Prior knowledge:
Layout lengths: L2 E5 L3 E6 L2 E6 L10 E4 L3 E6 L3 E2 L2 H9 L4 E4 L5 E5 L8 H12 L1 H27 L6 H11 L8 H17 L1 H4 L16 H22 L19 H24 L8 E4 L2 E4 L1 H16 L1 E3 L6 E3 H16 L14
Parallel strand pairs: 1-5, 2-6, 5-7
Antiparallel strand pairs: 2-3, 3-4, 7-8, 9-10, 11-12
Amino acid sequence: MKKSYYLFNPGRLSRKDNTLKFIPVDQSGVEGKPKYLPVEGVKNLFVFGSLDANSALYNFLARQQIPVHFFDYYEHYTGSFMPKDYLHAGKMQIEQTRTYLRSNRRMHLARAFLEGGSFNMLKNLRYYQNRGRQLESNIASIEKLRKGIEGVEEPSELMGVEGNIRQIYYRAFEEIITHFEMGPRIKRPPSNEVNALISFGNMMCYTLALDQLYHTQLNPTISFLHEPGFRRYSLALDLAEVFKPVLVDRVIFRVLNKREIQASHFQREVKGCTLNETGKKTFIKVWEEKAGETIKHRTLKRKVSYKQLVKLECYKIAKYILRIDEEYKPFKVWW
C-alpha cells in the first residue's frame, strides 16, 4: 500500500534503480546514513528541508506519478511538483470553465462549500457544548450567519461571510482547548502555538485535497468559492473548506487536550511561532491516523477512510459540473 513520506532534514534525493535514495546532510555539509524508499510504496513526498535533486529524478517521479509538496522554513506551503495531468479531459475542462462563468452555477457550488464547512464547524462546537463547554453564543452567532448564505449573490461577499463565521468559530477555541491560549487568528507568521498548529494543519488539508483532485479529471486551478489566481490550485482551497473542521481542527483538539503536543514542541522566534521537527512528526503521525480512519458510508454501505471521503467529494463536484447531478450536496458530518 502506498503512503506519504515526509523529509524534514536537508539532503540529497536521487534515483537508484527503482528506489529513491535520500542522504541527509547536516549544517556543516556532513552526510548521514542513506535512506531508501521503494518507489512502488511512495504515494507522495512532503519536503520541509532544502532538497538537492536533479531533473533526472523529477522525470522519474513524473513517470511514477509521484507529486512532491514543498514547505519553507516557517512551514508555509510554497508549491508542488505535479506530474503531467494524466486524467484531464477536454470535456471536463470546458464544462468546468462554463460552470465558473455562469454565475448561478458557480454560486451554487460556492454556497455549498461554505454551507458544508460551517455545518461541520457547528458539529464540532455542539460536541464540546454537550461536554460542558460554554459555547451557546458562538453557536447562535454562526447559525445566524449561515441563514444568510443562500441570499449572497457574489463570491467576494460569500468570502466575507466565511471570514465572519471563522472568526467566531476560532474564538470558541478558547473554551475547547486546554493548556494553550488561542488569541486572534494570525497567519503569517503564526503568533502562538495554536495559530502555528492551525496553519500547519490547514496546509496538510490543502495538500490532501490537491492530491485527491489530481486523481480526477477536475482542473485544480478553476475554483468557485475562492477566486482563481496565478500559480495556485484554488479548487483545493474550496475543497479544504469542507474538511478542515473534521480533519484539521479535530486533530488540534486531540493533540493539545491530550497533551500529545506540548510547549516543548514549538520554537518561538522574532518572526513568530512554529512547530519544531519533533512537533511536526507528532502532528503528522496523528494526522495520518485521522486521514486513514474509516467510517460507515451511508450511501455506499461500506467503510471508507476520511482520505477517500475527500476523493468522493471530488467525484460529486465533477458530476455536478458535467450535469450528471442537478445539485451538489457537500459532505456533512452525520455522526
